[in-house]
Design a protein that fits this description.
Endonuclease III, domain 1; iron; 2 domains; about 40% helix; five-stranded mixed beta sheet; 9 strands; Adenine DNA glycosylase; DNA_glycosylase; Nucleoside Triphosphate Pyrophosphohydrolase; single chain
């Protein structure tokens, strides 16, 4: 029995019972794949269930307000995925009459759909022989075949895609794709893979050459930049606060946050008080300033680390139209802000 057929056989006996595996409807497969990008199944499953309950069809999703989509997405991170999800739903309904493209080439034209997602939908929904390559697939193939080419290089992307396309079972492309992803997710894991019970251990090059921890190879990315965020949590005498919508491009685009003062270093209360006095939201008003979190909250993103402090600013009355603190949970915010809101006693 060859690698592909053995893998499919393993999958038939070991696959997890997941809701998106009970259907071949493109909407549900697309939704699950977008949610699971850069997200583990245990984290993504509740979001999938929430989305399918609130938006059972692509038509429902297309009619939603972006703010509702972002609110439901809150906590998953990489918010561009949610914005692309919403934009693509609108495109499919308006331009394609609610019908998803039925082949890899046309699926690839959808906003937010790359090679991996297009391959997954094409193979699972339309039985097209299009091999998926994600982190799990890179790991399985690099270890089994002993490939040292960095997976985050253009050469590696081409090499692994070609190999996966060569290995895919031409009669059962959907089963093969799901099998290799499942095997990487549950058996050939990044840390402490279960090599002793692995059905491929006799022929796995990494196992036999003791290179499990060396593969796959990945080029180290640039060191993340440090940023220092000081959020101003205004509290007025009539129970209002201020949330501002982030405009322009960026990972938090169209999400809400407290007014922000960014500094070059960590600052103390006296330094920040001087900055607050010059802020447009104060303009000479009297205020009381206190630091809420004694320990700096470090929020790690892929390209930057945010060293964050939340400063409570008590004022008699706001100079702008604020929102009731009772309504603050209705706004879509980054998880960094959401965690603060959950712990702060408004």
């Amino acid at each position: 029995m060859g690698f592909s057929k053995y893998l499919i056989h393993w999958y038939s006996n070991n696959k997890r019972d997941l809701p998106w595996r009970q259907t071949k409807a493109p909407y549900y497969i697309w939704l699950s794949e977008i949610i699971l990008q850069q997200t583990q199944v245990k984290q993504g499953l509740p979001y999938y269930e929430s989305f399918t309950e609130k938006f059972p069809t692509v038509f429902d999703l297309s009619k939603a307000d972006e703010s509702d989509v972002l609110k439901l997405w809150q906590g998953l991170g990489y918010y561009s995925r949610a914005r692309n999800l919403h934009a693509t739903a609108k495109h499919i309904v308006k331009e394609l009459k609610g019908e998803f493209p039925n082949n890899y080439k046309d699926l690839l034209k959808l906003k937010g759909v790359g090679d991996y997602t297009a391959s997954a939908i094409a193979s699972i929904c339309f039985n097209e022989v299009a091999a998926v390559v994600d982190g799990n697939v890179y790991r399985v193939l690099s270890r089994y075949f002993g490939i040292n080419t960095p997976i985050n290089s253009s050469k590696g992307a081409k090499e692994f895609k070609a190999l996966a396309q060569e290995l895919i079972d031409k009669k059962k492309p959907a089963e093969f794709n799901q099998a290799i992803m499942e095997f990487g997710a549950t058996h050939c894991t990044p840390q402490k893979p279960d090599c002793n019970t692995c059905p491929f251990n006799k022929s796995c090059i990494a196992f036999n050459k003791n290179k499990i921890n060396e593969l796959p190879v990945k080029i180290k990315s640039a060191k993340a930049k440090k940023k220092y965020f000081n959020f101003l949590v205004f509290i007025s005498g009539d129970g209002k606060t201020i949330l501002e919508k982030r405009e322009g491009k960026g990972i938090w685009q169209n999400l809400y946050q407290f007014p922000l003062i960014e500094t070059n270093t960590n600052v103390d209360v006296n330094t920040l008080k001087k900055l607050v006095k010059e802020h447009d939201l104060i303009k000479g008003m009297s205020f009381q300033l206190s630091l809420y979190n004694k320990d700096v909250v470090v929020h790690k993103l892929s390209h930057q680390h945010l060293y964050t402090k939340f400063w409570v600013v008590n004022v008699n009355k706001l100079l702008v139209n604020g929102i009731s603190t009772q309504d603050i949970h209705n706004y879509a915010v980054p998880i960094l802000i959401g965690n603060f809101i959950e712990t702060f006693n408004f």
